[in-house]
Model the fold of this input.
Amino acid sequence: MENSIFIGGGGPDYGEAQGLTLKYANRHGLVAGATGTGKTVTLQILAEGFSNAGVPVFLSDVKGDLSGLAASGTADFKLHEAFMKRAATIGFDDYSYAAFPVTFWDLFGKQGHPVRTTISEMGPLLVSRLLELSEAQEGILNIAFRLADEEGLPLLDLKDLQALLVWVGERRKDLSLRYGNISVQSIGAIQRRLLVLENQGAAEFFGEPALELSDIMRTDDLGRGQINILAADTLMASPRLYATFLLWLLSELFEELPEVGDPDKPKLVFFFDEAHLLFDDAPKALVDKVEQVARLIRSKGVGVYFITQNPADVPEDILGQLGNRFQHALRAFTAKDRKNLRLAAETYRENPRFDTEDAIREVGVGEAVTSMLMKKGIPGVVERTLIRPPSSQLGPLTDAVRQEVIKTSPVAGKYETRVDRKSAYEMLKQRSETAAKEAEVAEAQEEDVSAAEREYKAGRRYSGGRVSRSSSRRIGSPRKTQSFGEAMTKMVVKELTGTTGRRLVRGILGGLFKGR
Done:
């Protein structure tokens, strides 16, 4: 099928061959179905098709099965026989095995190249979502980000944000007059959430060198799009971190990529597996942002495909923007399941040959109910489709093969060494130390002045009593405009006036970094 990705089709009980037209591939899509119905294979053949078309792909590997994209298909006789039979049934005449260009990524840096971003790049909205902050706590975080911008304090990693929050807490009385109430309890709650996040391994995610988008939008020497696979099996133990990272990456693509209108094929295709994690308990502001990004990012040439068990997991406003549908079997064991099944069927353009609701319930493993966008972006009639077999290996790579792919990657060595440049933590520490030294010097000078004044007063005394002011004027040389004591007093006041601000800063910051 010219200018399209072959999905599957044929057989006596099925409709015409189905293909995903590249021109409409950036109109987004949905891959849904119960566990074990074939969503992973559908994701695999879509990644293969986009790569062959020269389109880079980014996807998350939740179960570890998608790493097989980096190796050629299986030599297992039984599986080979089944694949060849399926290919013949659906008319996939040029079916063959092949490996694809793959780059492995891992937020923890163990099963792929490390992925990092900075606190500043993620921004207060996503950090608040990651930490599950209340509205009041999110407000304080916004104040902290605002002050970091005003004071020129780069927020790169977790220790920068932790130090900044301590600084905000010390200045809270003055800041509350400007920004509203800042409570110690709220700052403490944020710090505890940061500690939990750090214990989960997120400290490795925040820092530099940060991921460059150009590194996930590569093509190989043959013009095939690079398939970027994020190792997510361990990451799924921190579902909020997983969802926030993917949303951040989607937001970065939206912010940085130029407008391209309606290209002949996407610039990048982004697969968001376990999509329900993005929307579970999400505040309306975040859902609105996702909807905005999904609506507008297609003009940047990016197609977004949500993978989930049930279409009901995706908010209706976003679901309505997903034009290319791959619906695997849904089970209906409860009244709620039956309602969701009926709603899923109602989103398709009806086919008079069969009942869509029955088809979604009855399709087997490796089959799907599909609907692709046609000419002028009109949804096609729903069809029952036999999904084509994958050309790459079905199942995960061995650890040895995976490590070899990582070593020969085009970005090998670029992100492995962490960089810790001067940022908010170091700058606040330097301010604290400087202010403390200046305050110590000022206190020493104050003590010297007090000692000199005491000596002067002692020198004015005689053994029998105090010399009168008039006598002292006659004994000394001509009358002066002010006494030595008065001069010393003025000098002390002047000195204190110059150091009060510095001593106040020392009071604010002096204990900030003790014990570090």
Summary: Residues 335 and 341 are 10 Å apart (CA to CA). The first strand starts at residue 4 and ends at 9. The radius of gyration is 33 Å. Confidence is low (pLDDT under 50) at residues 466-481, 495-516.
